[in-house]
Amino acid sequence: MTEALTGVLVCVKRVVDSSGEVVLAEDGQSVDGRYAGYTVSNHEECAVEIAVQAAAATGGTATVLTLGEPEAVEQLRSALAVGCTAATLVEADPSSYGPTDVAREIAAVVRDHEAAGRPHDLVLLGNDAADSGDFQVGIRLAYELGRPVVNGAAVVRLEDGQVVAEVAGPDGHETYRVPLPAVVTVLEGGVEPRYPTVPGRMKAKKVEIEQRTPTAEPTGPKRVRLLLPPPQPSQVEVLGKGADAAPAVVDLFERIGVLR
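-> structure tokens emitted (260 positions)
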């Protein structure tokens, strides 16, 4: 039996679309997205899907949150279009905020919403930031709120007032059960994110987004720089053309062990 859930908060970040060539900014502190466009990470798309499913199954609500510049409203409305019912923007320059700063601002939203009668029993985040590679926000948020946390969960469900999170551990499949309220970071692969429909997008445009200012000055990311791995070299061998290439194909298959 699944108990009613009061609310789910899912946190996303506006990041550069990495499906194309990744270009770093001149200072090496961020990814340049001027020519690539923006999105959220695959991990966060799955976290949004889990939040929407959990809210629907328990009669609760799913709220999406981001810390970013005004343009990040685009990502909030994408989450609203697939089933989230409320959205919060903490307006700030994300490049100036480190994991500790982001965790503090999320915790402030959770506390303020709870004081206003909108508690978030479950907070979901992506496993890591797709642009800066930070894996710290979920753990720091859980510490800030005094809640249990599970990292890298592909499957998340609610049973009898608990979060059941399935994780691919170093020694095989692992299942964790933690009491609510809790924090979970989501790894892609456990659910299939839904895509917004035209009616969903139209509905999302009508939702009033809560806008907040940060509660404190950021301490900064403390990052030295980001590194872009060099492209992997590749080689192409032309075996021939038409039927004349058949013997060379057979020889190749023998060399790589396909034919014996």
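The longest helix spans residues 42-58.
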